[in-house]
Design brief:
Layout: E1 8-13, E2 19-24, H1 32-42, H2 48-67, H3 72-77, H4 84-95, H5 98-104, H6 116-119, H7 132-155
Antiparallel strand pairs: 1-2
């Protein structure tokens, strides 16, 4: 199922003082697959800032899924994997700043915000891109996440 809203990054401090960060879906629940990935792959061996960076990259991947009306986990579970065209589209998406990717989904931060592009189309400029370091980080995180999900879906087909 493809969501019509972007996941939100949440940071919780448990009663023990431990910080727990996750992506929250449109229903207000932790996103299952990203939470599982962070818990299994990162939580015990990564610093909080690293986890936050990974979640930011996974949120950017979710933006791509929403923009393209895709659900990669369901596709992997059905034995359908990324094509070279999909990979190129992901690469191009990872070069964009998150704010630019959100614009493609018409995500508004507030109802009081008026789109200048609608009212002044001549002011449209080139899309802003992320730094090369951030682009590489996003691609690395997405690769690790998709391998994690792909292995689980192919080794245990009923899991997705």
């Amino acid at each position: 199922m493809v969501s019509d809203q972007v996941v939100t990054q949440r940071n919780t401090i448990l009663t023990s003082g431990e910080r727990f960060s996750y992506l929250e879906n449109e229903a207000g629940l932790p996103d299952y697959w990203t939470t599982l990935f962070v818990t299994v792959e990162l939580r015990s061996k990564s610093a909080q800032n690293t986890i936050l960076s990974v979640l930011g990259a996974l949120r950017h991947l979710k933006l791509w899924e929403d923009a393209n009306e895709r659900d990669l986990v369901s596709e992997f579970a059905a034995g359908k994997f990324l094509t070279p065209i999909d990979i190129e589209a992901l690469y191009e998406h990872f070069t964009l700043k998150s704010s630019e990717a959100e614009k493609s989904l018409n995500i508004r931060k507030s109802d009081d915000v008026i789109s200048m592009q609608i009212h002044h189309p001549h002011s449209i400029s080139a899309l802003e891109t992320a730094s090369s370091h951030q682009q590489k980080n996003r691609m690395s995180v997405a690769t690790r996440f998709l391998i994690f999900v792909g292995k689980l879906c192919t080794e245990t087909p009923s899991i997705a």
